[in-house]
């Protein structure tokens, strides 16, 4: 085994051009620096280059939305609608829980009042 390794190393040192083989995907963007600065992982996901129009009319007319810009806008509207829907459901669940808790408490009080009645001489004292 040792001889094979020496032969491979000797053969490898005679070649002047070597190729490196990457076994994992390399990220060319420094993600740690971007996270420290509070920036998104993908620099093309947000910013003036993606959010602003590609051109403007000199006479002041509004520019049409780009395809990706329109898609992002529709996606954000869907997310906002979903947030409103879920917050409404959450409020309903909170109110329902409170109603159930109150009804359980009132039922408990009703049972206690029906069960505990004065007996014996206490019954006669209460009538007076």
Automatic annotation (TrEMBL):
Q: Which Pfam families match?
A: MRPL52
Q: Where is this region: Disordered?
A: 101-128
One Gene Ontology BP term is: mitochondrial translation
What is one GO cellular-component annotation here?
mitochondrial large ribosomal subunit
What keywords were assigned to this record? Mitochondrion, Ribonucleoprotein, Ribosomal protein, Transit peptide
Q: Which PANTHER family match?
A: 39S RIBOSOMAL PROTEIN L52, MITOCHONDRIAL, LARGE RIBOSOMAL SUBUNIT PROTEIN ML52
Q: Any idea what this protein is called?
A: Large ribosomal subunit protein mL52
